[in-house]
Design goal:
heterodimer; A: alpha/beta; five-stranded parallel sheet; two-stranded antiparallel ribbon; B: 104 residues; mainly alpha; globular
Chain lengths: 290, 104
């Protein structure tokens, strides 16, 4: 794809995605070299958001494949529309057609249910294909992805090989629940996105929750940053931080003291253990902000 | 004469010595990546190489070490060793005068 690094940097900024040179360069290269981009990092650090922003930036449709254990080709690629085939078969029977006449069109595109991967491949326009949490899928599925990722084509036995008319922009994300294979890694460009630093997170809060008091935004960023160092079961994500900032705004909180911290903790922490731990430390955490 | 691809291969050799696995296909990707990212912006070139060559965050440290100057290079003011010592002006052209050959 013919893009410049500046176009990508500007595009990310226009889409209100606060980022750094590392992210910009990786996204730019994925477009320029026409290669899949594998994004790893902790849950809630903004990996999926990259694909969404990319789609918005390119004015392209976002096709999402959410991976899970047991995901197979029928759910990811295509499936024959069995009910429709059966109805057709019955209708044809009444007209006294022979099997040879019927079977010819029973296995045509008309009876194919397109799942996300096939839809991305056969789209006449450029699309962004997000293969989300690929580490949750089985190794067999990962192996099956390899053909698609290196050749942008898939094979349907009854129809033959379907080649992408427009190569989709492919983004894969992983939380590293399972180590991905070297073969998959080799075919992708790699990007690691960590939680944002203090200053970067403050920028994100100010950009997305502009009505929040500036000092409160600083404190909120520092507080969340401190929480992520406590070794919680589930450290707060960027999205949760923003929800929490909005909650602070709605609650009319002026200063982040211990009662203020306790008041909306459920927005930030979703595990009872984490919550109890932080509530117990609310005083100390608030004191550290002063 | 030193060529750019020669320097890149040398850099990748250093990476392999530091036990970062780099395949031939990835080497070609790295060349295309640098060609796309351009040579003018060093930080961008560095990230371009990282995206093409470092497929595991655990290897990033080793990459940074290979790409960063060791203590002995700090005096020269040259920001990177190996590949990165090729003197380039802002337009990405080679400067002929200021390049001390540093072997890493």
């Amino acid at each position: 794809m013919n893009v410049s690094a500046e176009f990508v940097a500007q595009g990310l900024r226009n889409a209100s995605y606060i980022t750094n040179e590392r992210v910009e360069t990786a996204v730019f290269l994925a477009l320029a070299l026409d290669k899949p981009l594998l994004i790893e990092g902790p849950a809630g650090s903004g990996k999926t958001e990259v694909a969404k922003v990319l789609a918005r930036m390119l004015g392209a449709e976002l096709i999402r494949l959410q991976c899970y254990e047991g995901l197979d080709e029928a759910r990811a690629l295509y499936e024959w529309n069995y009910q429709k085939q059966l109805l057709r078969l019955q209708a044809d029977e009444h007209q006294g057609l022979r099997w040879e006449d019927v079977s010819e069109h029973l296995f045509s595109r008309e009876y194919l249910l397109e799942r996300p991967l096939l839809r991305a491949i056969s789209s006449p326009r450029k699309v962004v294909l997000l293969i989300d949490e690929v580490d949750k899928a089985d190794e067999e599925f990962e192996a099956f992805l390899l053909e698609l990722l290196s050749d942008f084509q898939v094979t349907v036995p009854e129809l033959g090989t379907i080649r992408a008319r427009e190569h989709p922009v492919v983004v894969l994300t992983s939380n590293r629940a399972r180590e991905l294979s070297e073969a998959l890694r080799r075919r992708c460009l790699h990007l690691f996105i960590d939680f944002p630093g203090l200053e970067q997170e403050r920028c994100i809060i100010e950009l997305k929750v502009p009505d929040l008091d500036a000092q409160l935004a600083v404190d909120a960023a520092r507080f969340v940053n401190a929480l992520r160092k406590l070794g919680l079961k589930k450290p707060p994500s960027i999205a949760e931080t923003l929800d929490w900032a909005r909650a602070l705004l709605r609650l009319g909180i002026a200063q982040l003291d211990a009662p203020a911290i306790r008041s909306a903790l459920g927005v930030l922490l979703k595990h009872e253990d984490d919550r109890a731990k932080v509530e117990a430390k609310a005083g100390a955490l608030a004191a550290r902000l002063r | 004469m030193t060529t750019f691809s020669g320097e890149l291969l040398r850099f990748i050799g250093e990476l392999r010595l530091a036990e970062v696995p780099v395949s031939v296909a990835e080497t070609l990707d790295a060349m295309r990546a640098v060609a796309a990212a351009g040579l003018g912006d060093r930080a961008r070139m560095r990230e371009a190489l990282a995206a093409a060559l470092v497929k595991n965050e655990a290897d990033r440290e080793a990459f940074d070490e290979v790409a960063a100057p060791g203590d002995s290079f700090r005096d020269t003011g040259v920001p990177f060793c190996g590949l990165f010592v090729i003197g380039l002006d802002d337009t990405g052209h080679r400067k002929s005068e200021n390049v001390p050959r540093i072997s890493c």
